[in-house]
Amino acid sequence: MNNTEKIITEIKEFHTNIEAWFRGKAENQDRLYEKLLSGFTEEFKMVTGNGDSVTLAAFSEWLPGAYSKFPDRIIVLENIEVYSTESHGMASYIEIQTTEDSITQRRSSAVFVIREDRALWLHLIEKWI
Questions:
Q1: Beta bridge partners of 128
Q2: Nearest to 38 by CA among 21, 65, 56, 61
Q3: DSSP secondary structure, 68-98, as one string
Q4: Which of 12, 71, 120, 128 has the most beta carbons within 10 angstroms of its beta carbon?
């Protein structure tokens, strides 16, 4: 698998897993929690659509309270574009979250580090659209 494919795989798997988390659909909640967090570097930072800055520590503290909070949420990804080098990559994509009658969309840009044959999230910026 080349680095572009590793990044696309990471993006898709994370969103599949976070959807399962939001819906409360984990066979093993602890294992899913660890799987979600294992895709990030320790230096991970995110800027939300509201402009808030979130560290990996803050995200990991927030995550347990979101388990099964949105049992009907569906997450769809569109227009994934990736540029990668030997050790890094940048991706952009559109994420659409549907919860009952509410639909939110965001354009996301992410930087990844390639380590041990895997793409890890380093930085994520979301913008509401």
A1: 106
A2: 56
A3: TS-TT-EEEEEEEEEEE-SSEEEEEEEEEEE
A4: 120
What token pair was written down for 51? 């402009």
Residue with tokens 């990736």: 82
Q: Rounded to an integer, what distance in angstroms lies between the CA atom of residue 13 and that of residue 7?
A: 10
**CB under 8 Å to 42, separation ≥6 — which residues?**
56
Give residue-wise pLDDT tens across range 82-95. Answer: 999 999 999 999 99
Question: Tokens 């991970």 identify what position?
Answer: 44
* HSE (side-chain half, CA atoms, 13 Å) at 89: 26
Provide DSSP, the chain. Answer: --HHHHHHHHHHHHHHHHHHHHHT--SSHHHHHHHHHTTEEEEEEEE-TTS-EEEHHHHHHHHHHHTTS-TT-EEEEEEEEEEE-SSEEEEEEEEEEEETTEEEEEEEEEEEEEETTEEEEEEEEEEE-
Global confidence as pTM? 0.96
